[in-house]
Amino acid sequence: MLRVLLGAAFTVVLSPVLLANEPTPPANPAPVADTSSPRQTTMLILDGSNSMWGQLNKVNKIITARESIRTLLESAEGNIQFGLLTYGSEGKKTGCNDFNLVVKPENYDLVKVLKEVYKLKPKGRSPIAAALKEAAQQLPTENAHILLVSDGIESCEGDPCATAQQLVEANPSLQIDVVGFRAEKEAQLECIAENGRGAFVVATDTERLKTLLAGVQAKAVGITEAAKPTRTLIDKKSQPGSVELNILAEGNPEPLRANYSIYHPDGTNVVNFSARNRVTEYLPPGEYRVKAIWQTVEKSENVTIHSGKATPLTFNIGPTGELVVNALNKTQQPVAVNYAVYTTKGEFISRHVFQESMKTRLAVGEYRIKALLDKKILEASLKVTQDAVTDYTFNFTDK
Asked: Can you list the domains of the chain with their CATH numbers?
């Protein structure tokens, strides 16, 4: 049933006809919720900033956002309590205080939420950090979830990336998933998902978006597995699960920034991620191969995804140490130069542009370091040892 709903909704989302005729919310009554078992609580945050009138595939982004939310709500089977918070709907008069808690989770009613979603007319700014904080205040300490649907970056003074991390630290059960729209401004939205231990999907990637929406529902089904369903049962075995990826150095609890790729068993690529500390991705149940690359260290492992379940996968790249390199000019003053790090075989690892000091973590071993200042290049061979700091200074003299 869920697949049918998802397919129908996304056929509607991508149809240019919607530009002229916006759909109206359904008139069917809201399902009667079963409160006898714990349920997932999801706060929806919908972007109402003026830029949501822009188009993707000749369809207004606000229309795509409405249909995505409608798909999720209609497939929720009564096992998710939804709340709705919007921002940007009041225009410039209220500025950075322009966010509105429309429906609290405990007052959830499908028809009411959809009416508010379709009633939203974008025209204001983007106080994303404030909206995240307000949404989190409406969530319980267990089974908490935020789904942010946004097309831009923070336009007030908040830091939504840092806010997401603080909220997850305060409530470890919280997961923040993000649906984004603007390819040229996705870095901040991607960071919100990463720090929120959730998934990030661009709205134009319809297959991954459908999987994310179905995955939210499947996770909730897992939470309320023993509860009596209030509507037609979905085929649980076909619903997505998720994989949670990170890579650690021996003795270092903080995840390293790495590149990840997920493949089908036949080698077909599913999705790639660049320079991420953590990755969460919803996937249909089945077998996958995951590759992680940090510096020149490459690890891969098979993983099995189960419906409605989160599967953690942590790679360990072994012992590491720190390398700290500085540069001095002819008067022995610190000077900004360009650094490059290579293996002893000449394999490029990283570049650090116009810095007085370079600090990086590397796997134990020997490396070649180059420093460039005004077309003059100095080189050094340095050894990185386990859990130690290797400190070196380049001296640029007249010689």
From this structure: 2-236 (3.40.50.410), 240-316 (2.60.40.10), 320-395 (2.60.40.10)
Quickly tell me which residue has 């995840």 as its tokens: 255
pLDDT at 16: 37
CA distance 315 to 249: 9
- Give the mean pLDDT per block of 10 residues along the chain (399 residues): 37 36 49 53 93 86 91 82 88 72 93 93 88 95 94 87 96 95 74 95 87 87 53 60 96 92 96 94 96 94 95 96 96 96 95 95 96 95 95 87
Is the sign of the CA dihedral 293, 294, 299, 304 positive or negative? negative
Q: pTM of whole model > 0.90?
A: no
Query: What confidence score (pLDDT) does residue 6 get?
Result: 38
Label the pairing between strands 144-150 and 175-180: parallel
CA distances from 99 to 125, 203, 364 (A): 9, 22, 49
Q: Name residue 381's beta-bridge partners.
A: 368
pLDDT of residue 160: 94
Looking at this protein, which amino acid is placed at residue 67? E
Q: What are phi and psi of 381, to 5 degrees?
A: -100, 120
Taken in order 342, 346, 351, 354, the sign of the CA dihedral is positive
CA–CA distance, 315 with 174 (Å, rounded to integer): 23
Q: Taking the CB of residue 225, how many other CB atoms lie within 10 A of it?
A: 11
CA angle 259, 175, 28 (to 5 degrees): 125
User: What is the per-residue pLDDT for 128?
Assistant: 93
Count of Cβ atoms closer than 10 Å to residue 81 Cβ = 24
Among 8, 111, 126, residue whose Cα is nearest residue 67? 8
Is residue 16 classed as helix, strand or coil in its secondary structure? helix
